[in-house]
Each structure stands twice: as structure tokens, then as C-alpha cells.
């Protein structure tokens, strides 16, 4: 009887040990599974944050483009207004000149009727002509100044060239100088010109891979590298917001991104000052 009880106890202990092993294995696998789920959840949360950040950047970029275009339109309107005033002054000048000739021809008549003397008439019209010429010159200067401001607004790089966020900044890194910024973005996203200008280079450029370089006025130029596709040719005029290519990872690139540079008189400057 004691032997039977001992055998029963051994069976129970064996069953408990086996159950404990199975339970431990299950708990271990569950722990691994939970850790995997936590990792996936963390990645999903990170992606959600990245998407929110991208959406904020996109909204900011769209708002900036709208604001710049609005300012450019205002300047354009001012230029048009000055041109109208200049034309009006021109018409007034011509009419005044014609009237002046007429008065000069008939000045003796006015003088004989008790009006101003001939010299007084000449002096008045000469003074009026000088005033009109001065106003016309000032209007021309104002128009020229406004045209320069308008052109500068459109020629200075502004805003992100692609929807993304900066993953590597401008300056020294790991013993080498990074002459631009890297904007993290998926492959195939449209890349836009950040200012009006002329494409000076479009094609393969060593470690930069497929690259587009745009020359702008006032000494500015911009470079867009690691493109998957180029949509423009050298010599083409482009405006801010025009698509010049698509993001990729050609050349020396470990992942899809856009390398973006801003140069002033061919010297690289920090693009973040123009975003």
C-alpha cells in the first residue's frame, strides 16, 4: 500500500514538473511574443509621430509657399501700379509739352490781353516741365526698386524642396564636411525647385547620383541629389514649386533621402536658414 502511494506521489510530482516545464515554456514564449508586440507597437507609434511631423512640415511648407506667392503678387501689383502712373505721367508730359508749344505760339496774344508776360509764361511752363520730369524719374526709380524686390522674392530659395524631415544637418560630421542637409523621405516623392532660376546641370554627378543644380539670381544656386528620376534638362527655366525630379537613393546613399544644398556665390551655406 505504501509502495502504491509512493508511486502515486512520484506520478503526481512528475506531472507537476512536466506541467511546470510546459507552463514555463509557454510563459517564455508569451514573454517573447509580448516583447515583439511592444516593439511593433513602439515602431507603429514612431511611424505615427513621423507621419504627424511630416504632415506638420507639409502644412508649413504649403503655408510658406502660399505666403511667398502672395507677397510676390503684391509686389507685382505695385509694379503694375507704378507702370500705370508712369504712363499717366508720360501722357501728362506730352500734353503739357503740346500745351506749352501752343501757349508759346500764342503767348503774345495772352500778354496783349492783359495776361501774364511772355517771360512769365515761359518760366511757369519750364518749372512745370521740370517738376513732371522729376516725378517721372522718381517713379522710374520706384518701379525699378519694386521690380528688384519682386525678382529677389522669387529668386531667393525658400521652403522645403520635398515633404520630409531633416535627418542630417549642415557642417562637420565624422571628420568630413557635409555641405547640405539630408531630408528623410520615401523613394519616388516629387522634388520641387525652391526658387525661380535656370537649370545649370541635370544628370549623374558621382557620389551625388542623379542630381539637379539650379542657378538663381543674386548669386544663389541650389543642388538636389540622390534622385531616382530627373524631370528637367540643363537650360530649362523653372519657377518655385516646379517638379524637377523624384526622391531616391542613387549614388552614395544608405537609404532613400534628398541631399539638398544652398550656395551663395558658389559657397555652401546652411540650407536651414532658407527653409
Compact summary:
By secondary structure, the chain is of the alpha+beta class. Helix content is 54%, strand content 22%. The strands form 2 sheets. Strands 1, 4, 5, 6, 7, 8, 9, 10, 11 and 12 form a 10-stranded antiparallel sheet that branches.
If you had to describe this structure to a student in words, what would you say it looks like?
The structure is a single chain. With 275 residues, the protein is α+β, with helices and mostly antiparallel strands. It has two domains: 71-155; 165-274, Glucose Permease (Domain IIA). The protein has helices at 2-105, 107-112, 118-155; strands spanning 165-168, 171-173, 176-178, 181-184, 190-192, 197-204, 210-215, 220-230, 237-238, 243-247, 257-264, 267-269. Strands 1, 4, 5, 6, 7, 8, 9, 10, 11 and 12 form a ten-stranded antiparallel beta sheet that branches. A two-stranded antiparallel ribbon has the order 2-3.
- Write down the domain tally: 2
Q: State Rg.
A: 38 Å
Q: Strand count, sense and closure of the main sheet? A: 10 strands, antiparallel
CATH architecture of the largest domain: Distorted Sandwich
> Strand portion, in percent?
15-25%
Distance between the termini: 90 Å
Roughly how much helix do the residues carry, as a percent range? Answer: 40-55%
Shape: elongated
Structural class estimated from helices and strands: alpha+beta
Oligomer: single chain
Order of helices and strands: HHHEEEEEEEEEEEE
Top-tier CATH class of the largest domain: Mainly Beta
- Rounded mean pLDDT is 76
Uncertain runs are none
Counting DSSP H or I runs of 4 or more residues, the number of helices is 3
CATH topology label of the largest domain: Glucose Permease (Domain IIA)
Amino acid at each position: 500500500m505504501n509502495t502504491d502511494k509512493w508511486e502515486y506521489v512520484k506520478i503526481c510530482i512528475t506531472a507537476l514538473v512536466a506541467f511546470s516545464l510546459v507552463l514555463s515554456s509557454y510563459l517564455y514564449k508569451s514573454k517573447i511574443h509580448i516583447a515583439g508586440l511592444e516593439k511593433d507597437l513602439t515602431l507603429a507609434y514612431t511611424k505615427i509621430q513621423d507621419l504627424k511631423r511630416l504632415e506638420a512640415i507639409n502644412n508649413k511648407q504649403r503655408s510658406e509657399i502660399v505666403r511667398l506667392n502672395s507677397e510676390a503678387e503684391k509686389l507685382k501689383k505695385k509694379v503694375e501700379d507704378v507702370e500705370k502712373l508712369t504712363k499717366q505721367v508720360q501722357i501728362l508730359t506730352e500734353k503739357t509739352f503740346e500745351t506749352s508749344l501752343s501757349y508759346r505760339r500764342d503767348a503774345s496774344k495772352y500778354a496783349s490781353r492783359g495776361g501774364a508776360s511772355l517771360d512769365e509764361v515761359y518760366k511757369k511752363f519750364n518749372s512745370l516741365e521740370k517738376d513732371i520730369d522729376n516725378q517721372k524719374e522718381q517713379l522710374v526709380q520706384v518701379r525699378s526698386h519694386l521690380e528688384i524686390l519682386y525678382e529677389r522674392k522669387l529668386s531667393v530659395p525658400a521652403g522645403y524642396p520635398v515633404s520630409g524631415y531633416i535627418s542630417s544637418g549642415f557642417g562637420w560630421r565624422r571628420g568630413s564636411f557635409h555641405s547640405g542637409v539630408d531630408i528623410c523621405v520615401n523613394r519616388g516623392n516629387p522634388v520641387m525647385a525652391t526658387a525661380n532660376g535656370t537649370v545649370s546641370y541635370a544628370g549623374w554627378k558621382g557620389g551625388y547620383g542623379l542630381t539637379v543644380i539650379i542657378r538663381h539670381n543674386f548669386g544663389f544656386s541650389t543642388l538636389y541629389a540622390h534622385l531616382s528620376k530627373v524631370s528637367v534638362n540643363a537650360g530649362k527655366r523653372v519657377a518655385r514649386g516646379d517638379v524637377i525630379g523624384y526622391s531616391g537613393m542613387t549614388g552614395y546613399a544608405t537609404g532613400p533621402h534628398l541631399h539638398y544644398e544652398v550656395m551663395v556665390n558658389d559657397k555652401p551655406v546652411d540650407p536651414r536658414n532658407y527653409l
